[in-house]
Amino acid sequence: xxxxxxxxxxxxxxxxxxxxxxxxxxxxxxxxxxxxxxxxxxxxxxxxxxxxxxxxxxxxxxxxxxxxxxxxxxxxxxxxxxxxxxxxxxxxxxxxxxxxxxxxxxxxxxx
Length: 111
Known about the structure:
The chain contains 4 helices and 4 strands, in the order ββααβααβ. By secondary structure, the protein is α+β, with helices and mostly antiparallel strands.
């Protein structure tokens, strides 16, 4: 499954299922029906942006703890295979939320 997030003020944002579900879960859209289709209203966008930014900060904090622990024990972490961070995956959605909130337009998916 692919998520296509749509709004009237931005281009469509397409995400693979795993990434789309992760974003939806972070912003509190956890009802199984909202995984299929749903809406983010402008009034809910500030909380959604804050939740995503908090999740990014937590992920980056955990990553830094691993680096610090490795450094303290004299180990080096492998630099490869880090994958795409939540910051990178969520930034397009955060930008979409910002623009839609500024224009007072909703974001929908699955419709």
